[in-house]
Design a protein that fits this description.
The chain is globular. The protein is mostly helical. 52% of the residues lie in helices and 8% in strands. Helix 3 packs across helix 4, helix 4 packs across helix 5 and helix 4 packs across helix 6. A three-stranded antiparallel beta sheet has the order 1-3-2.
Length: 181
Amino acid sequence: MEPETQRKPDLASEVAAMRAIAEAIEPLDAGAALRVLEWARSAIGGRTTATPGDTHESSSLPQTTDLSEIQDLAELFHSADPQNEREKALLAAYWLQREVGASDFTGHQANALLRELGHGVANITREFDRLMEDKPQLVIQTRKTGASKQARKNYRITSAGRDKVMKMLTDSEDSNRRERR
């Protein structure tokens, strides 16, 4: 391995590594995912954040919300500032899968969370259908129980869906910074 002080920043490789990790831990439950991430942290010598000796300037990287500081869906909702019902559904899906640890979730579960915030979606199934129509898909359907149109559908957020949530957080922060100037 090349000494750390001689490495050149390669943001594309960093993003690719993050995506590979996210895809690798996606099928795991929360406890297993944390054990894998802890192992990875220890494998690189326990460093989890950039230090002043790193070769790239932190100011050149986009500053994003630290998800560890987000305590609940209300804070995530506020930080991401969803602009439509489709984005609200995506945020609820993200919260259910990543923070609650659900491997799959139903539209009913997602909308119940949104209704608790006072931001329920009129037709959550339609919004998940729209998220599945995106290319790449932001959500996938994993199961359908029952034969009728009213059957219960289970969904899972994709890595593209997680990326979209991160973009919403980044875009919202950028907008807030411009407003403060």
